[in-house]
UniProtKB/TrEMBL annotation:
One of its GO terms (cellular component) is plasma membrane. This is ATP-binding cassette domain-containing protein. The lineage of its organism: Bacteria, Pseudomonadati, Pseudomonadota, Alphaproteobacteria, Acetobacterales. GO terms for molecular function: ATP binding; ATP hydrolysis activity. Keywords: ATP-binding, Nucleotide-binding, Transport.
Amino acid sequence: MADATPMLETRDVARFFDVSRPPLQRLLAGEGKRMLRAVDGVSFSIPKGTTLSLVGESGCGKSTVARLVVGLYSPTRGSVIFDGRDLAEARADSTQRRRMQMIFQDPYASLNPRWRVRDIIAEPIRAFGLSKDKAEIEARVGQLLTQVGLSPLDGAKFPHEFSGGQRQRISIARALSSNPEFLVCDEPTSALDVSVQAQILNLMKDLQQRLGLTYLFISHNLAVVRQVSDRVGVMYLGRLVELAPAETLFETPRHPYTRALMEAIPDLDMTGRQRIPVGGEVPSPINPPSGCPFHPRCPLANDRCKAEIPAMMPARGTPQTLVACHAVEEGRDRMGAPLVEAVG
């Protein structure tokens, strides 16, 4: 049974980027600074041994959250807590820093093409001082390659000699080499063929069960998310709009944006049910709309939605779901009905 103590917790985390023109050009044009709100007030926790997935459209802030929780970006506001310690404090301690690793999206870009695989995997072992004995390091690299389904003999090869799926296995072996407890997986299967995706996902689930790993999984693929997740968070324009157990979210989505995402999944049974597609474009994070960020595209929006930012709270009827939506709070969403009926 998974430990209920959070491995990672974010509290009102925000990250803004200054995208202003140079000061002289701003002065001549009479304009102020322009801030891009990539992440704007995200809070969640991940119990040890579990998987939280973040989903949403491109540009919603998923990957920025991933970089915030491993310390590649510092938050503009809020805090990240890693196993009870502030992330900045934990990152300053190498024994804590080695406990978290990241698996990147593109296995073709995340491996040094000039290094042999054995050196790529051994680098964290040397960097964290886990071993200085050459024979011991070589044995550990062989063990890691075997663990991810490759041969120890593959350590002598270069990355270009492997397929995409094999390269991602090497990336996973590198991430595991420092004996981490927490892995951030930033769309680790999106660059791979569907059959290879299944192999990598099965490998990651097996490693989690055997090693007790905790995952933050970033993806836009709902089928992948359903397979790997214990809980799922849906992001829109830098904010979490829904957070729920995986099966609850897929069986009974509550936020209008989540429901629209689910209704976009192809209907293989050809039931002919009417759907409402998500209209319009995602607003600019430089100039986000007032009130609920989804209201310009939401079929259930009213005047309150345009003026007041909804808070995350337990949803009516599904208290295990946290949702930021005035329509759900007011009972206007007609839970369980197709979105088109809720509008009607």
